[in-house]
């Protein structure tokens, strides 16, 4: 698709709701600890597997025809077939595309879906996200995603305006799903992601009680806070976690000893990298403050900001250089390849771990690209920019080749692809974009690829000297001209 043909949508007329409310988790405490089983299996099947010897002597039980054939799957969510189909798509397709690990169950099914039973905003947000994902793939529902999105927004506003005590996790789940909707499948220019994130952090500050659901939701908002800051050039809303301050959030009931122990459900192996990414995402705002103070000739302020900027950027560069992912003691990295140290030991999770490792390394190298290009203002042809852009693109391709999780790959891929100059690197970018678009089927991937192609076209139209001096925000200019706002989550 040519860049000029990238579709754009219109903004919702609905304003982002105000999130000031009183939170009460106690009222729903009993519901919080009750978990439903994963919905990916048949909910109503009564058959149980038997060992062959027992099956030889025991009569085979027959499931009730009423349960086996008459009760549709997901009937507890809706009596409408089209809505049950949306829940099915959310559980069996969409929820698997946006997590790194689910060996003991998918966290969206374990922690988010049960919250929809008592919350129409959560339920409508699930419908909206699933419907929009299907619409992008050419599957039309009798009720449009925009209808469900509007219902979710209006329902969320009513809950907040009702002034009654509400369940924090239900509010956060609805907002989180709306953020996913805006980021992944919404077309065109949107300006309410920031409002959703501000509302979420305001709610999280009201109550510090930690549950598996709240920890998972806070991790999701922490991810999108940094990605939104990197995408839009705005400062992150949250405070930077300390080095080593983040621990991987596993799925519920995950085994304590597992090769995937160091993998976060939403950050993968980048958990220890994320505090560095958070500080990096704030640097552009600091740089703009410094430039503004210089223009206004505010000498004392310039001195303070310059010291802060230089100290922080150098610390980030050093931290990126030293960073290594956390791995189990019996697994090592040699030339970016995972190697099991135990003789003859086989670990079935190695292919998935290898893909997750490539994802984290892509983030590291693209962070260097962002630092050198956007923050330091290096030329796109600078050797350090090209070195790390090539490495990031290589790891993006390796992530897709291993067929592992690809849900968080767009930012490192986009940041590196913007600086791809050689035919080899552009081919790597093209291959990676094709793979993740086919696998994920998200609107923001298609729009990001259109922006990349337009950036390349404009660079190719310039003379060599002019291309060398291309500003680091060319892609932002292209986005503005095309009327799109992309968050690379």
Describe what you observe in this structure.
With 489 residues, the protein is mainly α. Helices cover 56% and strands 2% of the residues. It has a two-stranded antiparallel sheet with strand order 1-2. A hairpin with a 2-residue loop joins strand 1 and strand 2. The N terminus is likely disordered.
Order of helices and strands: HHHHHHHHHHHHEEHHHHHHH
**Based on helices, strands and strand pairing, what is the structural class?**
mainly alpha
Low-confidence stretches: 1-15, 21-69
Strand order, sheet with most strands: 1-2
**Helical segment tally?**
19
Fold blueprint:
Layout: H1 29-32, H2 52-57, H3 65-70, H4 81-97, H5 107-112, H6 120-136, H7 145-161, H8 168-185, H9 193-206, H10 212-232, H11 274-295, H12 299-322, E1 331-334, E2 337-340, H13 350-375, H14 383-401, H15 410-417, H16 423-440, H17 443-461, H18 464-468, H19 474-482
Antiparallel strand pairs: 1-2
